[in-house]
Design goal:
ATP binding; 4-stranded antiparallel beta sheet; binds adenosine-5'-diphosphate; Amino acid ABC transporter ATP-binding protein; phosphonate transport; 24% strand; binds magnesium ion; ATP-binding; alpha/beta
Length: 249
C-alpha cells in the first residue's frame, strides 16, 4: 500500500546552542519520493536542520516526525533510534570512511553490526551498490587509494547498504575538486530518478534546478521561501534571496 503521509513533517522547530537560537520555529514537509534542495548562506542553520532529521541533534521545541517516528519527544528508546538510523541515511561533506577498512568492508560493517545480517547476503548487497555507483572494481581498495569523488560515491553506497527510505546529504560535493563534483552529482541524480526521498543541502544551483522537485531557501533559522526549483531560483520574492542567488552566479 502506498503511504501518503509525508516522509518528514516539521512544525515550529526550535533549536538553540546555549543562547544562540539557530532554528527559529521552522516548518515544512518532505513528501515520499521527493527531492528537496536546501539552499542558504553559511550559518543559517541548514546542517542543524538536517541533523535534527536523524537525531544527531535533539530539538528544543516544535513537532518533528520522520518516517513515522515522532522525534518531538526528548527521549527515544534504543529500538526507535536504531530504526531511525537505519531508515535515514546521511552523507556528509567529509566522507567519514573508515581508513583501515577496504571499500567492501566499509560497506559491510553497518549491515552486519546494526542489522545483524550475515556474510554472503551483505557482500552481495555491497557489490550491488558498488556497481550502482560505478566502483565495483574498487571493492578491495582502501580509502586512501581513492579520489575524493570516488570516496564520496563509496560513502553514498555505504549509506544505501542500510536500505534507507530517506537520504540526507549535507553539502556532499563541497569538499571536492571541481572536476570531481560531476561524478557524485550523477550518482545522486540516478538515485533521485529511482524515487529515493532526498533532502540535499547544496550550493550546486544547477543540480537544484535540474534534479530537485522543490527548493527551500533558509534564512536565519527559517524557511524564508519555498517552491518549485524554477520559482525559487528564477523568481525570488525577497531581496535576501535575490542577493543570495546573485552571489552564487
Ligand atoms: P549552515 O549549515 O547553514 O552553515 P549550521 O547549522 O552549521 O549552519 O550552523 C548554524 C549556527 O549554529 C552557526 O552559527 C553555528 O556556528 C552554530 N552551531 C552549529 N552547531 C553548533 C554546536 N554544536 N554548538 C554551538 N553552535 C553550533
Ligand atoms: Mg552546514
Amino acid at each position: 500500500m502506498e503511504d501518503s503521509t509525508p516522509a518528514i513533517i516539521f512544525e515550529g522547530i526550535e533549536k538553540s546552542f546555549g543562547s544562540l537560537k539557530v532554528l527559529q520555529g521552522i516548518s515544512g514537509e518532505i513528501h515520499r519520493g521527493e527531492v528537496v534542495a536546501i539552499i542558504g548562506s553559511s550559518g543559517c542553520g541548514k546542517s542543524t536542520l538536517l541533523r535534527c532529521f536523524n537525531r544527531l541533534e535533539t530539538i528544543n521545541d516544535g513537532r518533528l516526525v520522520v518516517n513515522g517516528i515522532d522525534l518531538s519527544r526528548p527521549k527515544l528508546n534504543q529500538k526507535q533510534l536504531r530504526r531511525l538510523r537505519a531508515q535515514v541515511g546521511m552523507v556528509f561533506q567529509q566522507f567519514n570512511l573508515f581508513p583501515h577498512l577496504s571499500v567492501l568492508e566499509n560497506l559491510m560493517l553497518a549491515p552486519r553490526l546494526v542489522l545483524g545480517k550475515s556474510g554472503s547476503q551483505i557482500e552481495e548487497q555491497a557489490r550491488f551498490y558498488l556497481e550502482k555507483v560505478g566502483l565495483v572494481e574498487k571493492a578491495k581498495a582502501y580509502p586512501e587509494q581513492l579520489s575524493g569523488g570516488q570516496k564520496q560515491r563509496v560513502a553514498i553506497a555505504r549509506s544505501l547498504c542500510m536500505n534507507p527510505q530517506i537520504m540526507l546529504f549535507d553539502e556532499p560535493t563541497s569538499a571536492l575538486d571541481p572536476e570531481l563534483v560531476g561524478e557524485v552529482l550523477v550518482v545522486m541524480q540516478q538515485l533521485a530518478e529511482e524515487g529515493m526521498t532526498m533532502v540535499v543541502v547544496t550550493h550546486e544551483m544547477q543540480f537544484a534546478r535540474d534534479v530537485a522537485h522543490r527548493v527551500f531557501f533558509m534564512d536565519r533559522g527559517c524557511v524564508a521561501e519555498q517552491g518549485s526549483a524554477r520559482a525559487v531560483l528564477t523568481q525570488p520574492k525577497s531581496d535576501r534571496l535575490r542577493t543570495f542567488l546573485s552571489r552564487m552566479n
